[in-house]
Amino acid sequence: MFESVSRALRVADVRKKIAITIGILLIYRLGAYVPVPGIPFQGMLNQFQTALDDQSALALLNLFSGGALARVSVFSLGIMPYITAQIILQMLQAVVPSLQTLSKEGEAGQRKITQYTRYLTVGLALLNAVGYLFLFQSDAYGIDFTAIDAPIWLTSTIVVVTMVAGAVIIMWMGEVITQYGIGNGMSLIIFCNIMSGLPMSIISSLGSDISGILMTVGVILVVLVVIPLIIYIERGQRRIPIQYAKRVVGRRVMGGQSTYLPIKVNTAGVIPIIFASAILYFPAQIAVFFPTVDWIQAVANAISSGWVNWILSVVLIVVFAYFYTSMVFNPQDTADQLRRQGGFIPGVRPGAATARYIQRTLNRITLPGALFLALIAVVPSILFTFTNNALIQAFGGTSILIMVGVALDTITQVESQLKTHDYDGLFIR
Hints:
This protein has 18 helices and five strands. By secondary structure, the chain is mostly helical. Strand 2 and strand 3 form a beta hairpin. Helix 3 packs across helix 4.
């Protein structure tokens, strides 16, 4: 590992990408501490922190913003408007023919879909910002906005515009990391948000008695045991044997070799958990528009925690695992490509039969991977309900999966960059 890091730092191109990624993440964390202008900041903190402790829906929103919501910062909306917009666009691609056509047009089509995603992100960010404004100005928190020497409409406009601008900047940061840095920008920002809350969670979990210390040590030991299991599942593959027929090209005989088609046990990675969390997070977004309506708050809190949340989490993670896998892995296209290259699966006819065989294998291998994701995501939430330990909430299954998945993906991309550099050097020399 240390050798790989040393090699990466010696390569100028990789070193530049790592510097861009770290620099943007540092700027993002600084922005999470810059308060929104127009809000009586000191008077807001205690009241809003009490609300976070009382309402699990708001606590969920704060978790995904990396604590920016509790500090009422310019990045209070976090990355979730962008993720929600991506989910909506990806779902629409399955039902809207024009979007489906765009997704198959290569880079030009993807640029158009990305543009639509940005527009939708701004719209969702605007709705969220207005909802937070209603929440901040509600009587439930006792914040006196009239103490500010400015018209209410001007203060409200500044708050909404600042928060929307913060969401747009976060979206831009994520895209810059994805394009010019190392790793997926969206995933790295979520990773950064989760990691930022760990030190305080550990301190809070320790407490002042021996039971808190034992609980903290126990949670850390369990995490250390679970991480290798997650890596094992993440790297697990079902290898379908592929045989290439011999063919004559000019005076050369090509083909005849055997290889395999790797299908990952968890093809979708951590995306199902992120998407499921975004869907379960949506009622909490709606609830901020109605801070004084008890039944809406009750529904949002029920979906954000408790047995309803556990059941919905399992269902949504399994559904999104199959949905995202079907988007990134098309058995028909794979079968057509094998046939064009003269490849076939031993004992299976080329064409439609090969596509059906790959689809059946994909369905079988996706289910255990999806159930594993759901189990890791839900069990810590159940334990937190009975123990009320802050470390379990912050270092729960969802957090571990996201952190391990993002770390593995980032390391893989670094290794890929290093291999590309080595191959380039081979030809140059």
